[in-house]
Design goal:
The structure is a homodimer of 340-residue chains. Chain A has 12 helices and 12 strands. Chain A has 340 residues and is an alpha/beta fold. Chain A has 3 domains: 45 residues, no CATH class; 125 residues, Rossmann fold (3-Layer(aba) Sandwich), CATH 3.40.50; 137 residues, Response regulator (Rossmann fold). In chain A, 44% of the residues are buried. Chain A binds a DNA duplex (16 and 16 nucleotides) through helix 2 and helix 4. Chains A, B: Keywords: DNA-binding, Transcription, Transcription regulation.
Chain lengths: 340, 340
DNA sequence: TTGTAGGCGTTATCAT
DNA sequence: ATGATAACGCCTACAA
């Protein structure tokens, strides 16, 4: 009993303490506990207990190549959608005996690149990425080295990987159908700039196509949310033209819904009379009178689905798959048209 | 050029490719690049480039004992406050050359225990924990083994570690001062059960103490939020007694604010006339008319502060410190008393 | 059922 | 300035 803090004990010390060999201890903590005699098991258990022994995962992974780590790279960790998916991912990882290493790029391509390298250096056995930039090159390298890869929400043109996310086309269709059924005829679609992320592009295109197909008048605004002024003008202009009771705003994601709601309320618009529908469910949507209708993404399912993809591509090097999840319409007052 | 996917290249291969020794390559990727001749440097750089070499962190950590990993264990990853702090932590970690491994316990003590063991097995060099249960024993073991530890938001009685979080007493005092100044006299304090987390306890006690000191009438409700009915009754009962224009509700955290707002609105209460003040700033607080006043926590600062603690306790084994951060009052309509 | 020996990729030590 | 070599803690043949 020394004055210095306990050193971390190793397998060797446990072995000595238990009067056994390293191998036996290794077996005890591995998947071969059964093969050990009961006596041996207790001796090892006691010794390990006394020494506070925990196998060193680093050493373990070095030898066997099993880091038991899954990496997740997200573009915006403060986005509730991201967090909700993360939650599903983490649960699924735990269920499969993996741990999750989450890194946040804050939508910065340079950081993304660095973090990708980092994750690789920890030899993650699978990678789930919600891409900020277009790190195709790096990702392809990882794939070539045998790391299973799943693209979350945002696709990347040149990378061959599984994709998991919302069924964007379906979501837009559901939105348009709902708005039309509620009697709205003039639609304003609000999105962030579509270049940066594939779903934005898909949703926008589908919106325009869908409006035509249904004989609806559709306009789109896709500037950065940072430019509050532009957004504000777009909305105000939309509010002044044509009949009220005919007009509805469709928000491409949760951030947009937040920004748009702010402006709509400031402009004195009455929700419902002016329709408002958002993609992404947020916990405050029911609070803003008369409630904001949303298309909720099945975030948990998406997260689990992503991990399932990873696990599948570990076994057989299967072809990349696509998993498009359907949203759920949550109807509230903001699309209950009082003057249809 | 084989048909099989690229194997991950090792330091040895790079050494061969560059016509150098493992040592030189190691030096190149370590902190001793300077010591190498320019020629050597380029040769290694080129070789590494061509082979797509990245040092294996696992091996690195095995040898040197430096995992370059910080662990963070949070009780509820879907809580925006948690995520905001996480963001600060991650930034600070990156700035110090560390990576962050985040684990979520979902407020489950058993999971917490397991995840703690896990983090230990990855030999994290520091641990930030937002405790769900009371894993004092395990934590003390970690501390004894030399792992710097920081308690986030929630303290633990028997563990000797630094604590970082809100200045709870100050926050309550600020809340009471503000409410009193706005003319509210009867206060209802809404909290989650205080046993589970130390700040809840501190806040509750301070509330009761503070009301007395100021001559305010204070009631408290601290049942689980799951029991919507009980909460609802408490609020409704509070609304019916005494004069309106005198009454205000104080919410102990963001979750409570959400639940309470829901009920207040459903009860037809007019915010402002009935005061509402919440601890934790949420992005929807300005949306719910006439805006919900909050005490915002400096989440980024708290996160950074936590990492700073970690770094400090690595160098010298300094005594545990306490860092209580002051909140910021964001006044909105919900405490602008129209009938003072 | 148990033990022995070698090596995973890296860094540290000691040469040269 | 550069290299050879021995650990780091563990796992996995192979042997007994």
């Amino acid at each position: 009993m020394t004055a210095t803090p306990h050193q971390r004990s190793t397998i060797l010390e446990v072995a000595r303490e238990a009067g056994a060999s390293k191998t036996s201890v290794s077996r005890y903590f591995g998947d071969e506990r059964e093969r050990l005699s009961p006596g041996m098991q207790t001796r090892i258990a006691t010794a390990a207990q006394r020494l506070g022994y925990r196998p060193n995962q680093m050493a373990r992974s070095l030898k066997g190549g099993h880091s038991r780590l899954v990496g997740m790279l997200v573009a915006d960790i403060r986005n509730p959608f991201t967090v909700a998916v993360m939650h599903g991912v983490e649960q699924a990882c735990q269920a499969h005996g993996y741990s999750l290493m989450v890194c946040n790029t804050d939508n910065d391509a340079a950081r993304e690149s660095a973090l990708l390298a980092l994750l690789a250096s920890y030899r993650v056995e699978g990678l789930i990425i919600n891409a900020a930039g277009s790190p195709d090159q790096q990702l392809q390298t990882l794939v070539d080295q045998g790391t299973p890869l799943v693209l979350l929400d945002r696709e990347l043109g040149r990378t061959e990987a599984s994709v998991v996310g919302l069924d964007n086309a379906l979501a837009i269709d559901m939105a348009l159908d709902h708005l039309q059924a509620q009697g709205y005829r003039r639609l304003l679609y609000l999105s962030e700039p579509p270049e940066q992320a594939s779903p934005r592009h898909v949703r926008l295109a589908r919106f325009q196509h869908g409006c035509e197909a249904r004989g609806l008048t559709g306009h789109a605004h896709d500037q950065s949310l940072e430019d509050t002024e532009a957004l504000s003008q777009a909305i105000r202009h939309f509010l002044t033209e044509g009949d009220s009771g005919q007009k509805a705003v469709l928000c491409a994601n949760g951030n947009v819904t937040l920004a748009a709601t702010r402006i709509l309320l400031a402009s004195g618009a009455r929700l419902g009379e002016t329709g408002l529908l958002g993609i992404d469910e947020l916990d405050w949507c029911e609070l803003v009178a008369p409630g904001i209708s949303t298309l909720a993404q099945p975030t948990d399912a998406i997260g689990r689905s992503a991990v399932a993809c990873l696990m599948r591509s570990q076994d057989n090097d299967a072809t990349p798959t696509r998993h498009r999840h359907a949203p759920t319409l949550i109807m509230r007052g903001s699309t209950r048209n009082t003057r249809p």
